[in-house]
Fold L-fucose permease.
Amino acid sequence: MGSKSLFRKRSLRVEDDKRTKAAELTLGQSFYPICLVTILFFLWGFSYGLLDTLNKHFQNTLGISKARSSGLQAAYFGAYPLASLGHAAWILRHFGYRAVFIWGLFLYGLGALLTIPTIINHSFGGFCFCIFIIGNGLGSLETAANPYVAVCGPPAYSEMRINLSQAFNGIGTVVAPVLGSYVFFNFDEATALRNVQWVYLAIACFVFILAFVFYISDIPEITDADMEFQAAETHAAAVDRPFRKQYRLFHAAFAQFCYCGSQVAIAGFFINYVTETRPGTDSSTGSKFLAGAQAAFAVGRFAGVGLMHFFKPRIVFGLFMTMIIVFVSPAITQHGNTGLSMLYITLFFESIIFPTIVALGLRGLGKHTKRGSGFIVGAVLGGAVVPPLVGYAADKHGTPFSFIIVVLFFVASWTYAMAVNFIPSYRENADAFTVATVGLGDSIITTPDEEISVPAGRMEKA
């Protein structure tokens, strides 16, 4: 009987038409689930940073072109729409967030294990396929984790919360290139490839253990009913509009597509840029420079969270997006240390863009939140589209010149930053959550199986 009770309590299925304790979590009550999900942000930051390092590593060891090496990014980010609009989206709607976390970690671990035989056989195509599986896992995790962090806790701190969690993504992107500089570039080819195997074996072991931790942990689920409640409480606009008319969401997804494409292209060809424009710089040193740039990215996340404490998130978002274009443009013609400095500053301002687009794009979607999350995360497909274009241009005209493509896509993404600051319907929707008091009062949240006690003054709405 005790065993049956345990597994019933661990059920991964949640009824979306019922409210849970997640609707009004306070800061303290959301602390543990946010910390647990934040580990996922570190994991895919590490995986993403490792991918950028492997991009140059395979150019060296397998003698492939920049355009072909970008197949890693194409496989990785090309998997995201399949997850966010397909299998992960289905699991999220029919089961819940915890089920998607476990499913994504399983795929991540499986892909990591399968890389080992492909590396032994020096199969770049096979490795890309494994990266595609890993991308499906990480796409699943992002489909659930980004909206979960954005809505798990007081809505007023949504952007700050997701940027703070995403800061650990930045830490992961710092650790990976540092690791790569020591275990990939400072050894002969056979030893370096063997080191790659050990890295992915360690990743697989860790994520399988983490999947079990998610299974046994009591973390609050967030249902469509919870999201409708939050949207109604914050008076966010367009709650009752059909999904096809959520135009702000689609604009956010477009901005995410363009932004992610440019961000991935810069990181993927960063080492190429440095070795081409800075005389005497080898790949190992270039990897260390990439780690420094990713450190600037991580610092930018923390700085962005600090600024959002004093200024509205949409204002910080607009400023950072504008500064990206201002500083990346000179890197096309100003080479050496000057160009490198421009890229460092660019990565600093890139820091908050992805999570802030997620948070702003999900504003006021109510019961459409889970579906909307799939569209915004699926827009990461830009990371599969833009890098091959940049790689082709780099093969023909050099890496610095190819960054013209990066600038054009950043400008397209910038249109959303301008919209949330200057178009009234966008601006009012973004500001509605900023002044919300949900989760900041005296809500009494009980266990998942008990009723919710709602503060006086909200009883009539509960």
